[in-house]
Predict the structure of Ubiquitin-like protein.
Amino acid sequence: MPISVQASEGHLMSFEVNLRLILVSGKTQDFIFSPNDSAMDIAKHVFDNWPLGWEEEQVSSASILRLIFQGRFLHGNVTLGALKLPPGRTTVMHLVARETLPEPNSHGQRNREKTAESNCCLLL
């Protein structure tokens, strides 16, 4: 489970991961987590400890909060440790409300299917 609600002014311990979460509105908040925390743990923690100043963006359920890291949605069971985030440093992720996620690698599969369809030609 998360170590604390918000990052303190002090230094991070070497085993902690500081996440700076950015909303679509541009509002940000720092949180401290353990490398063992999953995307689902983080979403639940943020929902349960919704920051002051984010009231306009409040969602109805933690289950629709999604993290985006390096342009990719993180599925619920992915841990911060699996992402090899540098402990003791701040990592930026986007936090968005979205009901469902695309399947992993579905974008690549879709591109392959489109490519396969366009490579066919008929010579008369």
Observations:
- Helices lie at 39-48, 106-118.
